[in-house]
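Q: I'm building a small set of examples for a reading group on sequence design. Run inverse folding on the following structure and report the sequence directly after it, with nothing in between.
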């Protein structure tokens, strides 16, 4: 017959050793361990509760400082006023552009200046096309020059391996080497031509067209405020007091005059830039086209002396002399 301890392994909440020899802590001991495992952050005397150097306290302090940071009220009002003026101007210009597109209003035109601007835009497209073709030609010619040099080296190597064909291989190797050296001289002229064309197309003409875009924007702004003034003058003082109407009329006239002055200033600037662009373009292209003509004709006619003279005429550094391996 089993004893009381064996029949009931739990006595007063404690497990006593049984037949299997197992032993379980009593409930009081479990409660003590549970109390010992309480998170330290839940205690009032936790270091993070009073230590301002902890990351949690520092983050909270920054948030408080950010929330209660004071701003300059005058600066805020200034920025809001600038945003308001920009929004009004953008709305008026967009409305003017839509009306011009629909043909409901007339734009300010300077026929002679508009024609010159269109000619400049067309010239830029054509010069960019010429620049692209010149780049392709220079790249192809550079590849051909590299292949000629490789061909000369291969023939020179075969001249050492083929005694019975040594003279023929040597003759062709020297010919290809001479042609490659002349081609390198022509490459210097082509690179100079390309550099000047890039400056003309991507900097000089582009700078003028950038001013043209500013001029177009100023013209649109002037027309928008000019039409706004015209509409206000047609309405008269209807729907408001005379003092209010006079205030709006004065503001509209002031804005119209301001944008008119800006438009006229940019119009004068673009006329000067277009004149200088025409003069410089003709002067530069005359020099570059003469260089291109003389260099290419001298190269393809086999006149290396004339080719070197062309580069010296335009102060272009020619290629260095042959290396000690080529001598």
């Amino acid at each position: 017959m089993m004893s009381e301890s064996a029949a009931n392994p739990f006595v007063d909440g404690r497990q006593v050793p049984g037949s299997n020899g197992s032993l379980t802590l009593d409930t009081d001991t479990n409660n003590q361990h549970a109390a010992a495992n309480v998170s330290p952050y839940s205690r009032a005397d936790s270091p993070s509760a009073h230590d301002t150097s902890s990351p949690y306290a520092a983050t909270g302090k920054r948030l408080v400082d950010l929330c209660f940071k004071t701003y300059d009220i005058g600066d805020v009002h200034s920025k809001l006023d600038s945003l308001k003026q920009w929004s009004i101007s953008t709305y008026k210009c967009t409305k003017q552009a839509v009306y011009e597109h629909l043909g409901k209003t007339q734009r300010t035109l300077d026929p002679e200046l508009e024609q010159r601007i269109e000619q400049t835009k067309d010239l830029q497209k054509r010069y960019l096309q010429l620049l692209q073709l010149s780049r392709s030609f220079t790249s192809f010619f550079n590849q051909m020059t590299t292949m000629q040099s490789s061909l000369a080296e291969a023939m020179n190597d075969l001249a050492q391996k083929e005694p019975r064909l040594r003279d023929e291989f040597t003759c062709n190797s020297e010919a290809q080497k001479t042609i490659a050296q002349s081609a390198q001289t022509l490459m210097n002229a082509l690179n100079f031509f390309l550099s000047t064309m890039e400056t003309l197309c991507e900097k000089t003409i582009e700078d003028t067209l950038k001013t043209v875009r500013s001029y177009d924007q100023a013209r649109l702004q002037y027309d928008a405020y000019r039409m706004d003034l015209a509409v206000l003058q047609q309405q008269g003082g209807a729907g408001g007091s005379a003092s209010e109407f006079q205030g709006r009329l004065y503001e509209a006239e002031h804005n119209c005059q301001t944008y008119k002055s800006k438009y006229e200033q940019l119009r004068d600037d673009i006329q000067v830039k277009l004149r200088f662009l025409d003069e410089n373009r003709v002067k530069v292209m005359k020099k570059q086209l003469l260089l291109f003509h003389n260099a290419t004709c001298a190269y393809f006619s086999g006149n290396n002396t004339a080719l070197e003279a062309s580069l010296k005429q335009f102060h272009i550094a020619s290629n260095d002399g042959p290396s000690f391996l080529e001598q």
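Residues 33 and 148 are 90 Å apart (CA to CA).
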